[in-house]
């Protein structure tokens, strides 16, 4: 009897210890037994009106190191060419690595700044390939300053609001993109205390994001959240909420790819949080359970498929509340590379 008592006491103590450990370590969330998500969440990590949860999981594509568009342009391993067509550019990979381009990436220069409108994989030594884009600068059709008009010099920013992503990825509308650029500029101007439109090109979203007042206002968000990946080896994505409302999530087949994209993604989220900041407003806390339900529900919508290139296939699921985009790579046994979840 005493042995059984000791055994049961040990089990109780172990259970209490594990509960305390989970509470102290953080803000950990694991999927419920009946949840269909394969991910584990950690968080929340909060700064002002921006709430972030990290998505933990195993790499589904291993031994494959993509270059991002940002680093490929910086290293001059890829060229993005002006075509004088508002909604199509050309891209060429000069390197021996695959280059991953994400929908929403802004390329700066040319005769108009553009945003890439589809996820895209540019194979090694590709030659020139067409790539779909939208203009995020409506009042210029010439060289700007010392920038090169025939090609694009950099891609350090991504479109910074959910409405812009939906205008491009769901509505496929250039007019909606322009309208949402104007709306974003107006919201930013209001919340940073001055115009974010630059004289050299007042319609440029890229220049507004790089405005000194915007950078000053977003810096606290970035400083507070940039390091949350540190010492974590299994993070493959994240989800976020603004003003207490679930916004979006991005999950990748490779933790290495996500880590390289994280600074650019966080910068865009900080810009959106500033644009949507409601001073003195109090929002309800966002929970891991809310994020899990969002991820699961997003993958249950009506399905549609689209071939982007012979290599890249896009799967979309949509219902009344959510839209889900999954980019698949036929060169990797049709494995998914990127999953983007958006609460409409």
List keywords for this structure.
six-stranded antiparallel sheet, 344 residues, alpha+beta, 2 domains
Give the gist of this structure.
The protein is of the alpha+beta class and 344 residues long.
- The separation of the N and C termini measures 60 Å
Name the helicity range.
25-40%
Return residue spans where pLDDT drops below 50 for at least 5 consecutive residues.
1-26, 30-34
- How many strand segments? 18
Order of helices and strands: HEEEEHEEEEEEEEHHHHEEHHEEEE
Please identify the oligomeric state.
single chain
Structural class: alpha+beta
Envelope shape = globular
Please indicate the count of domains: 2
Mean pLDDT reading: 90
Number of helices in the DSSP assignment: 8
Please tell me how large the radius of gyration is.
Answer: 22 Å
Describe this structure in words.
- The protein is α+β, with helices and mostly antiparallel strands and about 350 residues long.
- It contains eight helices and 18 strands.
- The chain has a nine-stranded antiparallel sheet with strand order 1-2-3-13-14-18-17-16-15, with helices on both faces. A six-stranded antiparallel sheet has the order 5-6-11-9-8-12. The protein has a three-stranded mixed sheet with strand order 4-7-10.
- Helix 3 packs antiparallel against helix 4 (about 175-190) and helix 4 packs across helix 7 (about 255-275).
